[in-house]
Write a structure and sequence with these properties.
Blueprint (H helix, E strand, L loop, with lengths): L1 H13 L3 E6 L2 E2 L1 H10 L1 H4 L2 E12 L2 E10 L4 E9 L1 E2 L6 E3 L2
Parallel strand pairs: 1-5, 2-6
Antiparallel strand pairs: 3-4, 3-7, 4-5
Length: 96
């Protein structure tokens, strides 16, 4: 029991990973940058987004972005949903 509690405390000490869903009309590099920069305070050191997954669910484009800090460590993921999408899987988007 104590071991489990220590593991939980350790996970919390590492930090909370980002998990947002952002709704836009058209998913482009520019809209990704704009929406993420609006949420700069929530992103906690994120400088790059990497398009991890791109799919269509119920007629809506859904893109999953892996958020990276300056050391290349994952800081969590962000989902963007839109009516259209012009980004591709594997695309990196610098926020600065």
């Amino acid at each position: 029991m104590l071991d489990l509690l220590l593991q939980l405390i350790g996970l919390l000490a590492v930090g909370v990973l980002i998990s947002l869903t952002i709704e836009v009309i058209c998913i482009t590099i520019q809209t990704i940058k704009e929406e993420l920069l609006k949420r700069k305070s929530e992103l906690n050191g994120v400088i790059k987004a990497f398009v991890k997954q791109k799919q269509i669910i119920n007629g809506r484009h859904v893109v999953t972005l892996d958020m990276l800090d300056k050391l290349g460590n994952s800081k969590g993921s962000v989902k963007m949903e839109g009516q259209t999408c012009s980004v591709n899987k594997g695309q990196a988007i610098s926020l600065y």
